[in-house]
Structures are given as C-alpha cells and as structure tokens.
C-alpha cells in the first residue's frame, strides 16, 4: 500500500515496487483513504508519507499509528522530506516492522527495495541522518545540564546509594556542604517537596535516565 499526496512520486514508487516483485494493492492521497484501503486489503507493508492533506502536518504518522494498533502484522515504512525527531521517536517506539526513511536519501533503487524487504520481514530501519539528529536531540535535552560539575558528582554518588555523610567523606567536604548541594540539585531538577514522592529517589531516577 502506498500513501503520498505527490501523485508523481507515488506512481514512481508503485512502478518501482511492481518491477521489483511487489504487488501494489492500492494507492492513497490522504490518511483517511489510506486507512480505508489498509483495512480492506490488509497489506504486508504500507509506505506512508508523514505529511499529507488536509493540513500537511502529521496525518501520515497518525494513520501509521492507527495501522499499528489495528493491524500490527502490517509493516510500516514512513517516508519524510525532513528529519522530524519527535514524530520519529514516537513511531519507532512501536518496535519491529517499522522504518523511517528520508525521501532525499532514497536514491539507490536496489538499496531501497532491500530496505523495504527487511522491514516487511520484521526489521526496524532508521535513516542514518535521523540517528544523528536523535543523538543531538538527546544531548540538547539532557535534564542534568542545569547542574554544576560538583552537583553532577554528588548526584552520581547519590545514585550509588551513598548517604550525605558518605558523600562528604568521598569528596572531602562537610556534611552541611553536601546538604546544600542536594537541596540545589532538587531545586534545579524541579522536584518540589511532596508527601508521596521521595525527591532524592526521583533525582536519582533522572540521573539514570540521562545516562
């Protein structure tokens, strides 16, 4: 199944896939049409553009999400003209039989066909450009960037299970200084006092998630 509002691109892909041994069971120009066709034909793989009518936002991604929920046996290959990190992360969290490829990089016909075949067979394939963007995004969003080097060190020792007195002995400061560091860490990580949540534990969890 092919879904893209660019008719020339869609027809070109259909011809390419047909010559390569795939049976194209349908073509759609928007998300609504795509879902209707997928539900009626139950294809092995759906190749979907992220941005389609009416708003050209994330209609394709939303349709892909529905397909994954209703027909998990249908592999999904998302084609995008841009690296869209948040959308890709959401899609790829769905596990196997998923792919995210940039249209501009689909230049080697043999490689593209092999990639579609791998995804259909159960693989998850991510465009290398997206991998680089995901790594950069993770670095940009590191919640620990607000901490000073000393506060990071204290938080790391907290994660190892050290008490305030234990931390003081390891970094050669007074226990009172450690307490000040801990208060600063909790404040910078936006962990307000709570009757139900242990802020020290939550801070350690943030530390572990960021590693």
Keywords:
single chain; 211 residues; alpha/beta; six-stranded parallel sheet; 10 helices; 11% strand; elongated
Show unreliable segments. Answer: none
Q: What gap, in angstroms, lies between the N and C termini?
A: 40 Å
Q: How many β-strand runs?
A: 6
- Report strand order across the widest sheet: 2-1-3-4-5-6
Helix percentage: 40-55%
Structural class of the helix and strand makeup? Answer: alpha/beta
Count of individual helical segments: 10
Q: What profile does the largest beta sheet have? A: 6 strands, parallel
Q: Which of globular, elongated, flat, extended, rod-shaped describes the shape?
A: elongated
Helix/strand order: EHEHEHEHEHEHHHHH
Mean pLDDT: 85
Radius of gyration: 24 Å
How would you describe this structure to a colleague?
The structure is a single chain. The chain is an alpha/beta fold and 211 residues long. It is built from ten helices and six strands; from the N terminus they run βαβαβαβαβαβααααα. The protein has helices at 7-19, 31-41, 59-70, 85-92, 109-120, 128-140, 149-159, 164-171, 175-188, 199-209; strands spanning 2-3, 27-28, 45-49, 75-80, 98-102, 124-126. It has a six-stranded parallel beta sheet, sandwiched between helices. Helix 2 runs parallel beside helix 3 (59-70), helix 7 crosses helix 9 and helix 8 (164-171) crosses helix 9. The mean pLDDT is 85.
Topology:
Elements (H helix, E strand, L loop, with lengths): L1 E2 L3 H13 L7 E2 L2 H11 L3 E5 L9 H12 L4 E6 L4 H8 L5 E5 L6 H12 L3 E3 L1 H13 L8 H11 L4 H8 L3 H14 L10 H11 L2
Helix pairs in contact: 2-3, 7-9, 7-10, 8-9
């Amino acid at each position: 199944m092919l879904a893209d509002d660019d008719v020339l691109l869609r027809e070109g892909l259909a011809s390419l896939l047909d010559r390569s041994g795939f049976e194209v069971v349908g073509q759609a120009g928007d998300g609504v049409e795509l879902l209707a066709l997928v539900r009626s034909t139950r294809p092995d793989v759906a190749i979907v553009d992220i941005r389609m009518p009416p708003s050209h936002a994330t209609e394709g991604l939303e349709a892909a999400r529905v397909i994954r929920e209703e027909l998990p046996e249908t592999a999904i290959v998302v084609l995008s003209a841009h690296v869209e990190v948040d959308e890709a992360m959401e899609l790829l969290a769905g596990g196997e039989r998923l792919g995210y490829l940039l249209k501009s990089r689909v230049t080697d016909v043999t490689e593209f066909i092999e990639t579609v075949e791998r995804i259909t067979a159960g693989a998850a394939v991510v465009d290398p450009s997206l991998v680089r963007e995901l790594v950069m995004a993770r670095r940009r969003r590191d919640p620990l960037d607000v901490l000073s080097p000393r506060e990071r060190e204290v938080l790391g020792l907290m994660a190892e299970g050290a008490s305030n007195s234990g931390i003081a002995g390891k970094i050669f400061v007074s226990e009172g200084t450690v307490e000040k560091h801990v208060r600063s860490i909790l404040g910078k990580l936006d962990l307000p006092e709570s009757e139900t949540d242990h802020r020290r534990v939550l801070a350690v969890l943030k530390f572990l998630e960021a590693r």
